[in-house]
Amino acid sequence: MGIMFSAFVVIALILSVYLGVEAGGLHVLFGVIIPYAAFVTFLLGVILRVLKWAKSPVPFRIPTTCGQQKSLDWIEPNKLDNPTTKAGVVGRMALEVLLFRSLFRNTKSELHDHNGPKLAYGWEKWLWLAGLAFHWSFFFVVVRHLRFFLDPVPGFILAIEGIDGFFQVGLQGIQLTGLILLAAVTFLFFRRVALPQVKYISLPADYIPLFLIMGIAGTGIMMRYFVREDVAAVKELTMGLVTFSPTVPDGISSIFYIHMFLVAVLFAYFPFSKLMHAGGVFMSPTRNMVNNNRAERHVNPWNYPVKVHTYEEYENDYRKVMKATGIPVDKEDDDEDKSAG
To answer: What does pTM read for this prediction?
Structure first.
């Protein structure tokens, strides 16, 4: 149900752009108005989401750990899995963000019925590899596309584009990151569909981003290798958006507007979806905090003063009753009288 609904939504978006451009002449709507609206939605949505996270109270250190905490000098701590310094937190976060360290160490469990039920654990390196390929290829595709929004184009972008397209077939350079992106997102989709336990918990919120990214990568590959787009006209359109002097030149095909519209939808959808884990990982108190609970005492800073009844006061009030029932007391009546005298 979730797959069909998500696919229908994305196909409906694609058809709406095609019909709007080809039959309705809505080039300004899909080339100017919607991209601006999507960017504003993305920017405001991310800011509001981050501010909401920043306001969440975290009075205590609650990092998720899986290694030995620093304690006695003769016990060696795990400085990455259980960081007690800011340098350890930075190292742990860097490995998590750049290399997906926790996903690399992930395992899957299966129950096999061979000579009786047996629980077996297996590696999940294909998931780690696909996730790493997807995120890094997506990053480099975005960086490469900055050449459409900058004039002159910085040298590092040209260098990345040159390295990405070093593989040539005939006269046509193959941009590897675009193909890797499509292959990785397709693998992640089929994995979500093929594994029953993953499919069972999947929702349209899981499938829609996958279909959107498939559509973006697919239309991008079509424009590069099959439907030759007027790059000069596209550059004029994008530079007009950046300089706030929008113009819609002639010669841009409907497939480009489909590509651009899907990107705009993904941008607008980003702050309100699970894709915000890209920013949430930096705001997670289970990852960004030093675990020094044994070295320092952390007190809730907004605890209000509470009137308490100490044991000494309790004993003074009920000493005779306590002694009559055989309950031991810390101070006898004589000690109390002497202290009073």
So the answer is: 0.84
